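Aim 2 progress update. The chain analyzed this quarter is reproduced below.
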Amino acid sequence: MRKLTMTAVFTLLAASAAAQVVEDKVSVGPWDIATAFRGNTFVHCEMRRTSDGLGITFLRAEDGLALLLDSTKWKLERGKTYVVKLSAGGAGIEGKAEAASKGVAISLPDRTFNARLRSADSLDVKGEGATLTIPLDGSMMAMERLEACYTKNEKSSADINPFVAPNRKP
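Predicted structure tokens:
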């Protein structure tokens, strides 16, 4: 699985509403799942919620799964990479949080760890200054829907039937 590049992550974080349209949100527990398109081109599926002022997004794109965290309270150095430790369901991995001004993106290439996220109650993201506890209640069904969204939309390109508009539902 290829690593999400910083350029791709920043594009996702900073894309304008005109360039990238998120369509047809579906709620699964506390999570909203949606598809994102740039014109008629499928970009990614996302699973989003907020908790105590923290924006939490799991993003499933061609390059794999990523966690995006954002807060209006944060003052981050754009382009800086922070080392973080992630732990969920008794497992842990080390990762890199790539910063924008108010958020970070963390690539999640470890499939074994990602499987643990589905059944864990929370995800701890430990940086040098603090540990963020990300609530994962309802994530099992939401992550299944996220993956189904990606699989469905990845395959629904113009190659299948160029005369019918794609069904853009998550």
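DSSP finds three helices and ten strands in the chain. The beta strands are 21-28, 31-38, 41-51, 54-61, 64-70, 81-88, 91-99, 103-108, 122-126, 131-135. These observations will guide the mutagenesis experiments scheduled for the next reporting period.
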